[in-house]
Structure formats: structure tokens, C-alpha cells
Specification:
single chain, about 100 residues, mainly alpha, globular
Length: about 100
């Protein structure tokens, strides 16, 4: 499933080439797991895998972009931006909406 999102994530991040594909695939898989765990949702209301949802896919891209831009355990000389309100709003919608189960 992460492989299906790789090109879309690379476009979102404006990345060319394949040098960091392995890293991105790991981040995509982790983001998918995180959103499913945080929301408790794995399916859409019509029974499809939540990964088919454009809202879910957008949240994955946002989370991967945040992790990609803020890699490492310590960042010296750079202010780490907290995860944005847009991501939190999408996660809240997935968590509380009847469109997901």
C-alpha cells in the first residue's frame, strides 16, 4: 500500500529521483499506521479500506511531509514547526465522522 502512495508523496514534497524512496516508503507506512491507530478507523462507511479515502491520503502526505522536514532527534539552529491545524482537523474528522468506521 505505501508503494501506491510513493509518487503522490514525492509530488507533494516536490522531490525528484529515487534516492530517498526507501525512507519515504517507511515514513508512508508509519503515517498510515499512525492515522489508523490515532483515529481507530480502518474502513470507510461503505466498507472500503480507509486508504482509498482522499482525506486519509491527504493526511498521510501531511504527516510524511512534517516528518521529512523535521528529521532527526535534535535539530540545532532550526525551529521545529508543530504539526499543523489542517492535519489535526483531518484527523478529527476521520475520528468522529460517520463516514469512517
Amino acid at each position: 500500500m505505501p508503494e501506491e502512495m510513493l509518487e503522490s508523496v514525492k509530488m507533494y514534497l516536490r522531490l525528484d529521483g529515487n534516492l530517498e524512496d526507501d525512507l519515504l516508503l517507511e515514513m508512508i507506512a508509519a503515517a498510515m499506521e499512525e492515522i489508523k491507530t490515532a483515529s481507530g478507523k480502518t474502513k470507510t462507511a461503505d466498507g472500503q479500506d480507509i486508504a482509498k479515502s482522499s482525506l486519509y491520503r491527504t493526511a498521510v502526505k501531511m504527516l510524511v511531509a512534517h516528518w521529512y522536514d523535521n528529521r532527526g532527534t535534535e535539530i540545532i539552529g532550526k525551529t521545529v514547526t508543530p504539526l499543523g491545524n489542517s492535519y489535526n482537523a483531518i484527523l478529527a474528522k476521520i475520528t468522529t465522522s460517520q463516514e469512517y468506521k
